[in-house]
Specification:
By secondary structure, the chain is α+β, with helices and mostly antiparallel strands. It is built from two helices and four strands, in the order βαββαβ.
Length: 58
């Protein structure tokens, strides 16, 4: 199963991906998005699609 791959150098920590994810897979840890619940990921791609920085790939 694929999970979001977050480029922490590109992530601004805005939280849009966290708010967008219907499964609660992501959270802001420190100042960047992190995968905190990878088993819940359904590979919908919403987080990557909504990321304004283009920092997420599935």
């Amino acid at each position: 199963m694929a999970i979001p791959n977050i480029d922490t150098d590109e992530c601004s920590g805005c939280g849009i991906c966290v708010d967008t994810c219907p499964q609660g897979v992501l959270d802001i840890v420190g100042s960047t998005a992190q995968v905190v619940n990878e088993d819940s990921c359904v590979e919908c791609g919403d987080c990557a699609e909504e990321c304004p920085m283009g920092a997420i790939e599935i």
